[in-house]
Inverse folding.
């Protein structure tokens, strides 16, 4: 990795490259020349040295042999002395002694004449080689050894070998260290013995004359003439060193260890065996300095034994090559100078070359950076000029192509913009008539109709709703894909969602004879914070699919808590069916856009195939993931996991009960009588909206454009303006801006009515000063809800309006129920809820708080004041909310006592609160019971209705009339008796198979 | 430039590290021994088997062995080969340390003569074993089959006038005095009293007068044997020398004298400075393997301690060499004898 970085970081310019190459070539040339010259001079020097060494060895060898031949002459001369001959032949003892004295004199003279001689002897062959005459050199001169000191030398080689030689020949001994213990001088000296035999007159061998020569002087002499760096080597014929620069290697054989020249220099073997007389070597032992050397074989005289020594002179190569090193140094200097020069020259040269290239490179850089090209060397007539021209031409072409591309891109963007606008317009255009259809259907259903008409209208409603769903799906999908889908975070109740889904889906499931079950595990919190609408959308979609693709069995929905902590809960949702299932191949593309498991499915089951794609997008947007497990023929399980925040009970209470397609809405009582200005250009929409508003008790004025609206707000006091945003003459945005300019209307609620459901549209509305936004076509409940929200604020400011409103409520046929201990009106004002939610609230209150005072007491006894604080504050909020004014007062006093730490006051207050609470609970229970009875009564009324319907149904069944189908659903919707319901499930299956006869039979049995 | 330099340096460093680590990998055993005792192929076998590197150094004399084992307080080598007589001064100085016989299981393969270490003088001290016998050589008598009709039975043959000028004796002080002592019937040939010593001097002068010469090396003996008519050769180098002479074409016989043959016994011992004693003991054990010991006999003509010799020599008396008590006196006297001193001039 590092190496790569280093290499990539070195990116030399053309100039540097050229310079580097020129320099390199120049340096290489000089270096090669230098090297050649150096090696030539080196070879010459070595050759000269070899010659010199060879000459020197020859000179020394001559010296050596010259010395030996002189000694031989001396030995010969002494052996031929008449005295010697006389000794050899004399038989007379006295004579003999005199001759020996004479001979000793001669030996002594010789010893004095020759410094290198240290002993001369005449040894007899008899008596074990007993010495006859022996003269030794001593420190103080020469000494003739007395008779007593004469030794037996017969066992020495120089004696027994010489005795074998013919007269006149010589024996030359091996050169060794003299070990004769009787010697004073010469002991342990390198010694050479030269001997010659002596015969007696009868021709027998009589003895030998021996001269012992101390070779140290000769050795010193050999080395004295040499150059300082030269080393001399001398070895005997066995190869043992006699002279070696390392003194410890000489005469090793005398000390029990041998150092052989042929072990050090193998080539010497050729000299030892006599293959060569001399040789020149240029070697060195491994790891040592190389040596240049010359060796020669030096014969030791003309002796019969043909002894010889190896003489060599060596010089270390480095000392020879001293001069060449100076030469090499000079060359290196030249190379350095030349390198500098060549670098300089090549830099100049490369600059000249690289300048136009750099200009080109710079221009290219400018061009790639999108800037105009300057300094293109167009004026040049050479190749670079040509390149510059081509380059300029190419750049122009590219420029044109880029322009074309930009133009195309612009067109594409425009097209895309147009598409977006078209989509928005389309949705507006579709929603506006849809608004009319759903609105009018709603209003129509409110009028007196025959059952058939009602049924048809319901079908229209259902169709319109599915069409809207489809449009919403498409919009959702495109928003999700554009990343513009927003996820809300608001408190909600999970059971509300399930109630809601169940109310829609149960019917669907029932119609197919399926059971739909919801199973929520114990740990799942009831109140959560998140996007309830999106969650509902996902679940509805999955459940709807499950029902759609299941013919028999059940659809089960499971919710489990995967992980819960103080702040959030991760829940696992699972929708399980026993339907047709999905193959693994189909599963792989299941969540793709416009994909159903199989294209044949579209024909069989219908649907756009958008549902699962939207589910996936939504779940992922909410931070979860969706999965499917399925076996064809056995069913499918869709599961997803989502994390929600936790909300408390009251936070999550529904503010209204909408979205369940319940046509029995209760219009917001407290808003009745309020005056509303409706600004809407579409006449049908005008009609529908006005109808909805007036039915709810509002006073409505209508204008058909923004300009008129700006004038109308001045002419009358309005509690609210409903403003369409797209209108002729002046649109809603502009009109709002104008209205807001008048400070009087700064707080006037202006609510946008727009077919555009996109967030951008909402933002635009808020930006121009609108307070809220309703998407057309709107659900009447949504409309009422928004109005309730804005007009209520108004009433709190205007007491008279409130009065009016309250009167209206009181005057309305739905009186608030009377519950002892509770101010129901107060509660309605506080929570804005009624009906089912109201019942639910009361039930929850009893469930959660019936024992609260016992708990407070318990905590008091355990001194858990923090716990009491929590309970009391919770209770305070609740009792105020449900309008329990008396109890509220008591709890407030308890709170004060706690704050003042007056524990003595607490007990009576708690007792009082407990009594009040019990009273409230008992009256709530009474109220709830009476409610139940009332609903039973209603059921009873319905029964009569149902009897009529059933009779007609029977008639239709008996006539095989297809109207029986619609009648069945009419009856089914009104059924409350569980026994009847289960029978009707059987009937449903039969009539779905058009078995009207069978259906009639079952019906007859149960009725 | 700097980057390139760093780059090159890092490569160089890496190479150095790599080579360093491979060098470090194996254990090293340093062996000091005699030529022929640890041939390269044998060493390689050991290295392979124990994943160790063996560095062998050779010596050619007892003196050299002594001086090299004394280098750096005995820390230059792990294991060395030394004869029993020489071993004593190593033990005295603490250069040789006791070894653990348990780690040398091949000792059970040794011939009966070598198995009882306490019966071999100088091998053990205070109950501790300092060396393991590896090879030995008796000093017998070589005779020229052409000149000597009946094989000699005693060293006394060297004094036989019939062979005057045809005897090759060895130029050494200690063995010659020991032989003289043995022939004179002394109690301990390695330790002569004054009287015995003087008699030995006379005996050796007599020997000198009967020999052709005294040889210094087995090679020299071969040379002299070829140049002269030789009847008897004192086999200072034992079987090795016999082999050498036979190789040169000599028709010779070899006998161990009935009075007993002196023999040196080379052993393996461990130095004070041993780095890995287990590995050194493994080396000794390896040397006692049949194949390794037999290789020594085949190549060097030296006897090993695990395979018996086929002829009757096993029954002959062997006198293991022991340290000489009067070494200096013997050497001094021998110098004079060899120089040619007569009984009068002593």
């Amino acid at each position: 990795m590092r190496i790569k970085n280093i290499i990539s970081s070195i990116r030399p310019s053309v100039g540097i490259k050229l310079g580097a190459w020129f320099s390199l070539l120049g340096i290489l040339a000089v270096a090669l020349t230098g090297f050649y010259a150096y090696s030539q001079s080196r070879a010459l020097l070595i050759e000269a040295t070899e010659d010199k060494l060879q000459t020197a060895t020859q000179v020394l060898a001559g010296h050596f042999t010259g010395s030996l031949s002189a000694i031989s002459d001396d030995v010969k001369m002494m052996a031929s002395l008449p005295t010697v001959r006389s000794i050899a032949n004399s038989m007379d003892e006295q004579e003999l002694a005199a001759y020996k004295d004479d001979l000793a004199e001669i030996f002594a003279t010789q010893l004095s004449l020759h410094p290198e001689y240290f002993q001369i002897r005449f040894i007899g062959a008899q008596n074990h080689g007993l010495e006859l005459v022996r003269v030794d050199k001593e420190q103080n001169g020469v000494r003739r050894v007395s008779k007593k000191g004469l030794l037996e030398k017969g066992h020495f080689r120089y004696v027994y070998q010489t005795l074998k030689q013919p007269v006149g020949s010589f024996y030359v001994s091996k050169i060794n260290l003299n070990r004769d213990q009787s010697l004073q001088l010469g002991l342990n000296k390198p010694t050479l013995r030269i001997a010659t035999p002596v015969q007696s007159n009868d021709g027998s061998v009589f003895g030998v004359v021996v001269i012992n020569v101390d070779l140290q002087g000769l050795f010193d002499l050999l080395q004295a003439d040499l150059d300082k760096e030269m080393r001399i080597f001398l070895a005997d014929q066995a190869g043992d060193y006699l002279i070696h620069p390392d003194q410890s290697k000489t005469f090793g054989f005398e000390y029990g260890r041998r150092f052989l020249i042929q072990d050090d220099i193998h080539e010497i073997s050729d000299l030892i065996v006599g293959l060569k007389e001399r040789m020149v070597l240029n070697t060195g032992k491994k790891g040592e300095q190389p040596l240049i050397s010359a060796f020669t074989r030096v014969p030791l005289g003309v002796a019969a034994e043909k002894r010889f020594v190896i003489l060599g002179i060596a010089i270390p190569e480095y000392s020879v090559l001293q001069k060449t090193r100076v030469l090499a140094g000079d060359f290196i200097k030249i190379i350095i100078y030349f390198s500098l020069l060549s670098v300089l020259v090549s830099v100049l040269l490369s600059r000249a070359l690289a300048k136009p290239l750099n200009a080109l490179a710079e221009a290219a850089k400018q061009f790639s950076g999108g800037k105009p090209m300057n300094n293109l060397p167009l004026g040049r007539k050479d190749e670079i000029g040509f390149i510059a021209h081509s380059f300029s031409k190419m750049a122009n072409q590219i420029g044109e192509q880029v322009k074309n591309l930009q133009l195309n891109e612009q067109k594409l963007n425009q097209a895309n913009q147009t598409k977006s606008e078209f989509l928005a317009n389309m949705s507006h255009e579709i929603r506006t008539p849809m608004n009319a259809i759903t609105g009018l259907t709603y209003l129509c259903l409110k009028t007196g109709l025959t059952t058939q008409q009602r049924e048809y209208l319901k079908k229209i409603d259902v169709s319109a709703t599915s069409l809207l769903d489809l449009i919403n799906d498409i919009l959702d999908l495109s928003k999700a894909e554009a990343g513009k889908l927003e996820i809300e975070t608001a408190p909600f109740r999970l059971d509300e969602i399930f109630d809601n889904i169940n109310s829609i889906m149960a019917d669907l499931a029932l119609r197919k004879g399926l059971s739909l079950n919801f199973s929520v595990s114990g740990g799942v919190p009831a109140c959560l914070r998140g996007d309830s609408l999106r969650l509902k959308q996902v679940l509805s979609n999955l459940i709807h699919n499950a029902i759609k693709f299941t013919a028999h069995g059940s659809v089960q929905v499971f919710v489990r808590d995967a992980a819960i902590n103080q702040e959030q809960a991760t829940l696992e949702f699972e929708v399980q069916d026993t339907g047709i299932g999905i193959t693994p191949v189909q599963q792989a593309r299941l969540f793709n856009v416009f994909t159903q498991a199989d294209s044949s499915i579209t024909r069989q089951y219908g649907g756009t195939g958008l549902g699962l794609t939207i589910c996936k997008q939504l779940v992922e947007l909410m931070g979860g993931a969706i999965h499917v497990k399925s076996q064809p023929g056995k069913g499918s399980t869709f599961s997803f996991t989502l994390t929600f925040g936790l909300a408390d009970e009251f936070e999550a209470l529904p503010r209204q009960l909408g979205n369940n397609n319940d046509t029995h809405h209760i219009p917001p009582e407290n808003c009745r009588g309020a005056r509303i200005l409706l600004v809407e250009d579409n006449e049908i929409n005008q009609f529908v909206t006005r109808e909805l508003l007036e039915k709810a008790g509002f006073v409505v004025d209508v204008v058909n454009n923004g300009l008129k609206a700006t004038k109308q707000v001045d002419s009358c006091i309005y509690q609210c303006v409903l403003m369409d945003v797209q209108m002729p003459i002046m649109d809603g945005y502009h009109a709002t801006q104008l209205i807001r300019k008048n400070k009087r209307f700064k707080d006037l609620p202006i609510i946008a009515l727009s077919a555009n459901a996109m967030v951008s549209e909402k933002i635009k509305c808020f930006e121009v000063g609108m307070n809220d936004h309703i998407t057309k076509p709107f659900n009447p409940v949504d409309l009422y809800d928004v109005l309730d929200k804005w007009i209520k604020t108004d009433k709190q400011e205007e007491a008279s309006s409130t009065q009016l409103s309250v009167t209206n409520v009181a005057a309305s046929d739905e009186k608030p129920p009377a519950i002892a201990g509770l101010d129901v009106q107060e509660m309605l004002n506080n929570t804005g809820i009624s009906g089912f939610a109201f019942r639910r609230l009361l039930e929850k209150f009893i469930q959660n708080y019936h024992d609260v005072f016992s708990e407070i007491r318990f905590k008091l006894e355990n001194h858990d004041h923090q716990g009491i604080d929590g309970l009391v504050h919770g209770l305070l909020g609740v009792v105020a909310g449900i309008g329990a004014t008396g109890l509220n007062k008591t709890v407030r006093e308890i709170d004060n006592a706690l704050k003042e730490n007056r524990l003595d006051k607490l007990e009576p207050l708690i007792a009082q609160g407990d009594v009040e609470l019990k009273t409230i609970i008992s009256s709530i229970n009474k109220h709830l019971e009476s409610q139940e009875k009332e609903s039973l009564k209603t059921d009873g009324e319905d029964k009569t209705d149902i009897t009529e319907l059933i009779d007609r149904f029977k008639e239709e069944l008996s006539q095989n009339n297809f109207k029986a189908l619609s009648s069945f659903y009419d009856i089914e919707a009104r059924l409350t008796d569980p026994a009847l319901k289960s029978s009707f499930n059987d009937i449903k299956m039969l009539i779905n198979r058009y078995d009207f006869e069978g259906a009639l039979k079952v019906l007859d049995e149960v009725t | 430039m700097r980057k390139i330099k760093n780059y090159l340096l890092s490569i160089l460093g890496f190479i150095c590290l790599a080579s360093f680590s491979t060098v470090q990998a194996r254990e090293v055993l340093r062996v000091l021994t005699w030529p022929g005792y640890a041939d390269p192929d044998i060493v390689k076998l050991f290295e392979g088997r124990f994943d160790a590197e063996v560095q062998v150094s050779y010596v050619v004399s007892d003196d050299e062995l002594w001086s090299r084992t004394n280098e750096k307080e005995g820390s230059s080598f792990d294991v060395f080969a030394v004869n029993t007589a020489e071993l004593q001064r190593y033990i005295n100085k603490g250069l040789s340390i006791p070894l653990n016989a348990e780690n040398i299981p091949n000792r059970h393969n040794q011939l009966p003569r070598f198995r009882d270490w306490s019966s071999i003088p100088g091998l053990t001290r205070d109950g501790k074993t300092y060396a393991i016998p590896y090879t030995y050589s008796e000093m017998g008598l070589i005779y020229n089959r052409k000149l000597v009709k009946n094989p000699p039975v005693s060293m006394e043959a060297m004094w036989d006038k019939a062979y005057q000028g045809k005897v090759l004796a060895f130029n050494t002080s200690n063995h010659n005095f020991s032989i003289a002592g043995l022939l004179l019937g002394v109690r301990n040939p390695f330790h002569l009293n004054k009287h015995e010593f003087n008699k030995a001097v006379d005996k050796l002068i007599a020997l000198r007068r009967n020999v052709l010469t005294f040889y210094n090396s087995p090679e020299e003996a071969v040379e002299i044997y070829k140049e002269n008519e030789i009847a008897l050769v004192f086999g200072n180098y034992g079987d090795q020398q016999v082999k050498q002479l036979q190789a040169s074409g000599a028709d010779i016989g070899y006998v161990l004298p009935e009075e007993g043959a002196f023999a040196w016994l080379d052993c393996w011992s461990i130095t004070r400075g041993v780095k890995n004693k287990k590995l050194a003991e493994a080396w000794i054990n390896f040397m006692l393997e049949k194949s390794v010991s037999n290789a020594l006999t085949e190549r060097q003509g030296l006897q090993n301690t695990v395979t018996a010799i086929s002829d009757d020599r096993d029954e002959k008396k062997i006198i293991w060499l022991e340290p000489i008590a009067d070494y200096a006196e013997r050497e001094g006297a021998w110098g004079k004898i060899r120089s040619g001193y007569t009984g009068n001039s002593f």
Summary: The first strand of chain A starts at residue 117 and ends at 124. Residues 654-669, 793-814, 938-942 of chain A have pLDDT under 50 and may be disordered.
